[in-house]
Amino acid sequence: MSINEFCCYRGCCTEWEQEILLYMDHEISPDSCERVQRHLDRCDECARFYRIMDREEQLLSGRLRHQVELTTEPDIIADLVMRDIPAFQPITFSQRVKEQVSAAAFYLFDRDRRHYSLAASILICVCGLLLAMRVGNVAEVQNINIVRTGQVIPIAPKEPIFIYLDEGEFIQLPDDSVIYAMKDTYFSVNSCNMDAPESSSINEERSLQLFSGKLCIDVSPHPAKIGFSVICPNAKATVFGTQFYVSTTTGPSKTTEVGVRVGSVMVEKRGKNQVGLTILENKEMTTINSFNGVVNLRSPYPLRPDLRRLLDCFNEARRDRSARRMLPVLHLTENLKNVSKDDSMLPLPE
Amino acid sequence: MTKNAEATLVSQVLNGRRECYRPLVEKYQMKIYLLACSMLGNPSEAQDIAQETFLVAYKSLNQLKDQTKFGSWLFGITRNLCYSAMRRQKIKTEPIDSVAYQDIPNVVPMRPSEENGVDILSILMKRLDDLPEKYRVLLRLKYLEDYSYQEISEMLDIPVDLVRSRLFEGRRLLREDLDNVRRIANEH
Ligand SMILES: [Zn+2]
Fold it and tell me: Regarding beta strands A265-269 and A254-262, do their DSSP bridges make them parallel or antiparallel, or are they unpaired?
């Protein structure tokens, strides 16, 4: 580019300037994009304006990028930050009481006695909380009412459930979450507490333990954002309202698969000294393998077609709640899944 | 990572799981670093600010009201840290700063044969550093990483329309000197 190549920024076709810049920034609708391209083909003046602008912008971009050394290790900030931060202490009940009491004390001993009423109400709240805790502790072991094939069945927490029906089984949890468990699946419901206060540990309030087998789960979102966890031998998946799939195998080398249809799922490694997690988004999956005590967590990759079909079908069946009609549909899907393992791709029957 | 996944991670961190903070840092570190670079123009200082942003954010995470707005909140912290860094800098450098930028147009006509964009680039770079802050930060951000107007809007907390008009105006101002230089060069 010669310095003598005179080009006033306010070129001849002034009305095109903004359009051309938007075109350069890729911030233009496909229609306008075509229009600009056509004009650039016809108008020498604008074509030169575009060429020079683009060249200058690239020069600037190159120089600035060079200055900030974008070639350095990108994760250095994360490494440094993670080195420096301590773990948060979850707020315990006694801490909360202490806070409330000290707030009350502050108001009580304030010279301005107008705060009496406020102090009193805070104290009442504290007493109420304490009482609630006592009552809660007494009624700790509670049965969980699940719905199996249309019948309400109370089960004890962690009571094993084994699915022996060929067509699998639909199970509804008290929080309205729905599980489809396939044949030979062995799992338990650890807890399904919908009344848990928001502040309590979000992992423990709604959880399933999957020992082996395959589950499709539609988690109903919780008003207080309590998570839903599926605990497998070598992994744990935590979600907040989504449709997803989990399968796990037993034996010396365990493999767990987690796939998501919609929403996002946090998948963590489980095991001695095993730390690591990943986030799955819509239509992604991951695999967790463990061998000789080492757990490997793959980074997210696109949901396999057979799992995508299975989850889509599960979704259809979920919307129309009559289990009788959806079971055969899903039974088909499961067979389809087994077939598709042999690499023959069949379309889902309408 | 969707906003929901971010909110999930934030609440996990608040429940004592510090390892859940890493994916959040990894997602935003580049944007935060480049935002600080654009505002300060000094990479090593920007890296310090980026680190500080994540530490400050971690310490005050329980003050984040809407957990789906972690990103915007983070950018706000970065901007505040940069502004206070700039204030500190200003106090230190004010007396020397009075050397006005005048000499460039005189230099160029003396060697009009110099081509291949070398001079053009240094004129543009000098001019960029002297632009008013609202244009300078925006242009630097655009040149450092080809962010969309939407992303820039979130990083600087200004409406998308304003991003568009300021980019346009900024690019025009950036070349004002260049136009003069070229005119002088042509006259010789
Ligand atoms: Zn034109």
Answer: unpaired
Residues written for chain B: 188
Measured over the CA atoms of residue B7, residue B13, residue B14 and residue B15, the dihedral's sign is: positive
| CATH class of the structural domain B3-88 | mainly alpha
Spatial distance between the Cα atoms of A97 and A199, rounded to a whole number of angstroms:
13
For position B84, what pLDDT does the model report?
Answer: 92
**CA distance to partner chain B, nearest, from residue A301 (Å):** 13
Location of structure tokens 């076709």: A13
Question: CA-CA distance, B176 to A120, in Å (whole number)?
Answer: 69
Q: Is the ipTM of this complex over 0.95?
A: no
CA distance B74 to B7: 13
Is CATH 3.30.70.20 what the domain over B107-187 is classified as, yes or no? no
pTM score of the predicted model: 0.59
E strands, chain A, in order: 144-148, 151-155, 160-162, 169-172, 178-181, 186-192, 206-218, 228-231, 235-239, 243-248, 254-262, 265-269, 277-280, 284-291, 294-297, 301-302
- Indicate left, alpha or beta for A225 from its phi (over 0: left) and psi (-120 to 50: alpha): left
CB contact under 8 A, A60 and B121: yes
pLDDT tens digit string along B9-30? Answer: 888 888 887 888 888 998 899 9
- Judged by a CB distance cut-off of 8 A, whether residue B179 touches chain A is yes
Nearest CA in chain A to B180: A8
Q: Do B124 and A89 touch (CB under 8 A)?
A: no
Residue of A nearest to B30 (CA): A74
Strand partners, A217: A179, A244
DSSP B62: G
Distance of CA A321 to the CA centre of its chain: 25
What spacing in Å lies between the alpha carbon of B169 and ligand 1's midpoint?
Answer: 19
Please judge whether B4 and A240 are an interchain contact, meaning their C-beta atoms are less than 8 angstroms apart.
yes
Sequence ranges of the domains in chain B: 3-88, 107-187
Flag whether residue B18 sits within 8 Å of chain A, measured between CB atoms: yes
Report the phi/psi class of residue B16: left, alpha or beta, with left for phi > 0 and alpha for psi in -120 to 50. left
Nearest CA in chain A to B29: A77
Q: How many CB atoms lie within 10 A of CB A158?
A: 12
Reported as a single tens digit per residue, the pLDDT across B74-110 is: 999 999 999 999 888 776 654 433 333 333 333 333 3
